[in-house]
Amino acid sequence: MKSIVLFGSPGSGKGTQARKLAECLGVPHISTGDMLRERIRKGSEIDPALVARMKSGALVRDEVVDRMVEDRLSQPDAARGFVLDGYPRTLAQAEHFRGWLDQRGIHEVVIYLAVDYNVVIARLTGRRQCPRCGTLYNIVSQPPRVDNLCDLDGEQLVVRNDDREEVIRERLDAYERQTRPVLDFLRSAGRMVVEVDASSDPPEVVFQRISQAMETDDCSKDRR
To answer: Which of 72, 123, 127, 128 is catalytic?
Structure first.
């Protein structure tokens, strides 16, 4: 199986790199954040406490996310592998996920995108999203062709609730308190961890670094 876990703070570029890797490897990109937002948008998640926690930038309960990830990874399209974005985020999730993988003989590769704190703040406060197709833009580094309109469908772009500055700072605080220790846990558990500097270079350069580190240079060449 081609099983990859993308690791890094909010705004580190996990979503962008996950999509590139998923396309390259022919496996699904699985984002826990996207799945939770979609459940709320469709009204399938009726727990008001969960909605409130997401809007405030706090982490969702471990058991909720564990169950959601297991259900998604059990679907047929993930049988050949997956690119997991946004999970695990706590030590409890990491221990649970390691057990789930070990039971199935799956050996994942962890890619850690290292980004400076101030760079993350600048990226996320400038982020805009199309509410229809989900395409992400940045008003500084990746603006739409027409101001505040999606290039693909012309929809008015919006600021996601979890991209407001006060929420961003809470998300980063939560990352430092709960998620960064997960990286140390994965390393100590003998997982393959690839660290890539993702602070300043464009996504294409970061992707090439990931490809080279994972010895998947053919993927990078195919995209040129």
So the answer is: 127
